[in-house]
Each structure stands twice: as structure tokens, then as C-alpha cells.
Design goal:
It is built from five helices and no strands. The chain is mostly helical. The longest helix has 28 residues.
């Protein structure tokens, strides 16, 4: 992760990161809610304090226990697989075998994302890189 060379660039990086993380959060909650608007609203309302207060705790835990990062990546891969295989276009494209590939695709993406995280982490000795000034 790089820092901004000017105040303007640093603000832009922060705004871009916040928008990206917010979109990711909304997509994850929407996928987990399976279209139930009440669950989406509850999930977003519940996730805000978790993100604000839990991020510091989770950051310290991830520094000590790197496997948490791979596990989280696996969860994201699994949810992505569920979103893909539940998509009506995907189901229409596969036809009758859509139900057969549902779980293997989700599990395969979970394993692939976790393995990619492990593989990328090897270059830093299995430890997340520290940001400058941290």
C-alpha cells in the first residue's frame, strides 16, 4: 500500500478506499440476505459498528495469526461462488447441471482465494506487510 505524496493525493486514496470497502460491505450483506430487504437493512446497520470497532481488534489478531486472513479470503471466495451460481443468467446458461455445480464452484472459489492469499503471503514470510509509519 502506498501513501499519498501530497495532502490532496492522500485524501483521494482515503476516499477511494472507503468507497471500495463500503461497496464490498453492501455486496456481502446483500448476498448473505438473498434478496430480503429487511435482512439487508439489518445487516448494514449491524455491520457499521462491527467495522468501526472491530477493525482495530481484527487488525491486531491478523498480525498475530495470519491464517485469519486466509480464512476470511476463503469466506469471500465462497460467497462469491454462491453469488455466481445463484445468478439467473448463470443458471440459465448451465441448465439442469446448475444445481450440481453450485457447491463445487463455491467451495472451489473458497479454496482458490485462500490458496492465492497463502501464495502471495509467502513472499513476505507469511506476515502481512506493514504500512509506512505503522
Amino acid at each position: 500500500m502506498r501513501g499519498g505524496t501530497s495532502l490532496r493525493e492522500a485524501i483521494w486514496i482515503i476516499v477511494l478506499a472507503d468507497v471500495t470497502m463500503s461497496l464490498d460491505n453492501v455486496l456481502a450483506v446483500a448476498a448473505a440476505a438473498h434478496g430480503d430487504l429487511i435482512l439487508v437493512m439489518f445487516g448494514i446497520g449491524l455491520s457499521l459498528p462491527i467495522v468501526v470497532w472491530g477493525s482495530g481488534i481484527l487488525s491486531r489478531l491478523m498480525t498475530r495469526h495470519v491464517w485469519i486472513i486466509w480464512f476470511g479470503g476463503g469466506i469471500l471466495g465462497y460467497v462469491a461462488g454462491e453469488m455466481i451460481t445463484d445468478d439467473p443468467v448463470f443458471r440459465g446458461w448451465l441448465g439442469r447441471v446448475a444445481d450440481v455445480v453450485d457447491d463445487p464452484v463455491s467451495i472451489g472459489l473458497a479454496v482458490a482465494v485462500a490458496a492465492l492469499g497463502w501464495w502471495c503471503g509467502r513472499s513476505s514470510g507469511g506476515r502481512p506487510r506493514q504500512a509506512h509509519g505503522a
